[in-house]
Structure formats: structure tokens, C-alpha cells
Design brief:
The complex is a heterodimer of chains A (162) and B (97).
Chain A lengths: L1 E4 L5 E6 L1 H13 L5 H7 L12 H28 L3 E2 L6 E5 L4 H19 L3 H4 L10 H23 L1
Antiparallel strand pairs in A: 1-2, 2-4, 3-4
Helix pairs in contact in A: 1-3, 1-4, 2-4, 3-4, 4-6
Chain B lengths: L20 E6 L6 H12 L3 H14 L1 E7 L1 H13 L4 E5 L5
Antiparallel strand pairs in B: 1-2, 1-3
Helix pairs in contact in B: 1-2
The chains are: A alpha+beta (162), B alpha+beta (97).
């Protein structure tokens, strides 16, 4: 896959092979999980429980629904951009464009995907230091590969935004 | 004459608005370092060097006090950090001696 930034700040991805297409299309799906681990990671307490502070209850009532909406909106933007994946004229793969105005949503959705996968598989810091093995097709190894791929894409987008 | 029972005041649930509050960011190995720096620059308006210093403190020490001040803006900062999926909490700053 190739990526370049156009003068208007939009990101153009090209030469996307089917396996990368599948990875990209999975970005908005990972955070759809309703597992307790993902929920806890996405909506952490704003203050330690032992502080016995009323903000914790207000947070659940007022802030968490807003966060839910914001995260969903970011995923929907990414899903809409991904529907524009199209075959290149030279048939080398697929291509797509990420408009400059959508970069924040992409960063957010990529972060959601990485955090959701890590929460589901309970990855720790040392797990992330491993390189995924091409000979290991276990779900855990594939999940690690996804986290790394999304990280590379996220790093590229951060670079373009600075 | 009817009597009125006043609700028991829950002293533990009082918010000390006169206190000074810290916004603390906690380590999360999943968030990219460059992403955390970008978010600190955006949310707090910090220059890159200061944002980078806080990111390294989070990474090496597990936490960094990224902002200190009144309660209301502290809550808003925590909310903004959560919207970027950073682990952040409010903590009452120790009273000055």
C-alpha cells in the first residue's frame, strides 16, 4: 500500500491489496464490541472510586452518553470513507482518499480499534513489543498484527497533522 | 405541628470547589507516544517540548500531572482527554503546607 498527502491535506491511499482492504474495513467494527473490558477501557472513571465523589455518577449520566456518540460518529465517518474504496485504473489494487476534515475521526477510530482489540485479548506492554509471527495464525497473533498495522497507519496520520 | 426532616447531609459527597485539583494522565501501553503528544498539545495548548515531557513522564513513571487548577476546568480537561481515549483522572491536590 502507498500513501501520500495531497496539497489540500487529504491522504491518498493506493495499491491496496485485498488483505489490507479487509484490515481497513475492520477498523470501525472492532469497537462495536459490547464486552465489559472494552466498555471499561473506553469509559474509565473520572476519579478514583475511593474519593467517593459525586462526579462519578454524573459522569455516567451525562458524559458517557456524549462519549458514546462521539466515538460512534468517528467510526461512521471512517465507514463512509471506506465505502469509497475503488479499483485503480492500472488494476494494481484499490485506492481511496481520506479528506483532511476526517483525519481526527480516523485517528480516533484507529485508536478505538487498537484499544478494543487490546482489551479483548488483554494485551500487556510486553505483548506489544513482540513482532507478530507470519507462521502463527492464531487469533491472538492476528490481533497483534492488526494492532501493529493500525498503529503504523495512525502514526502516519499523526505525522501529517503536525 | 408537622415536622420536617431535613435530608442527611452526605459530607463525603461534597465537592470542595475551593480546593486545587490535578488532572492526572495514566500510562496506557496501547496509545502511541506521538498520539499522546499531539493530544496534549491540542487539549492544553502546550508547546511540543512540554507535551513531550509529560508523555515521557506518563510512559516512565506511569502517570503525569498534566494540569492543576480549579475543579470545573479540571473536569472539562478530563472529559476532553477521555474523548481522545486517554486514561485521565481528577485528583485533589494536596493542600499547601
Amino acid at each position: 500500500m502507498n500513501a501520500y498527502t495531497a496539497p489540500d491535506g487529504s491522504i491518498h491511499l493506493s495499491d491496496i491489496p485485498p488483505v489490507v482492504q479487509e484490515l481497513l474495513e475492520s477498523i470501525p467494527l472492532h469497537a462495536e464490541s459490547d464486552s465489559a473490558q472494552v466498555e471499561a477501557r473506553f469509559f474509565p472513571d473520572p476519579i478514583a472510586p475511593e474519593a467517593n465523589d459525586p462526579v462519578a455518577e454524573d459522569w455516567k449520566a451525562f458524559v458517557v452518553p456524549d462519549l458514546h456518540s462521539a466515538f460512534l460518529s468517528a467510526r461512521q465517518t471512517v465507514a463512509a470513507d471506506l465505502r469509497n474504496l475503488h479499483p485503480q485504473e492500472d488494476a494494481k489494487g484499490l485506492a481511496m482518499e481520506i479528506p483532511r476534515a476526517h483525519l481526527d475521526d480516523w485517528l480516533n477510530a484507529l485508536n478505538q480499534a487498537r484499544l478494543a482489540i487490546a482489551a479483548e485479548f488483554r494485551f500487556e506492554e510486553e505483548d506489544l513489543e513482540e513482532d507478530p509471527s507470519p507462521h502463527d495464525d492464531s487469533p491472538r497473533s492476528l490481533a497483534l498484527a492488526q494492532i501493529h498495522f493500525f498503529g503504523v497507519l495512525q502514526e502516519y496520520l499523526v505525522d501529517q497533522m503536525e | 405541628m408537622p415536622t420536617t426532616t431535613l435530608p442527611e447531609e452526605k459530607t463525603s459527597e461534597k465537592i470542595d470547589h475551593d480546593a486545587v485539583w490535578n488532572v492526572v494522565v495514566h500510562n496506557d501501553p496501547i496509545n502511541l507516544m506521538s498520539y499522546v503528544v499531539l493530544i496534549f498539545m491540542r487539549v492544553f495548548g502546550y508547546p511540543r517540548e512540554r507535551a513531550h515531557k509529560h508523555m515521557l513522564e506518563v510512559h516512565h513513571k506511569g502517570r503525569s500531572i498534566v494540569w492543576t487548577g480549579p475543579r470545573e476546568p479540571a473536569e472539562l480537561y478530563v472529559q476532553q482527554l477521555h474523548s481522545h481515549l486517554l486514561l485521565a483522572t481528577l485528583e485533589k491536590a494536596p493542600a499547601p503546607e
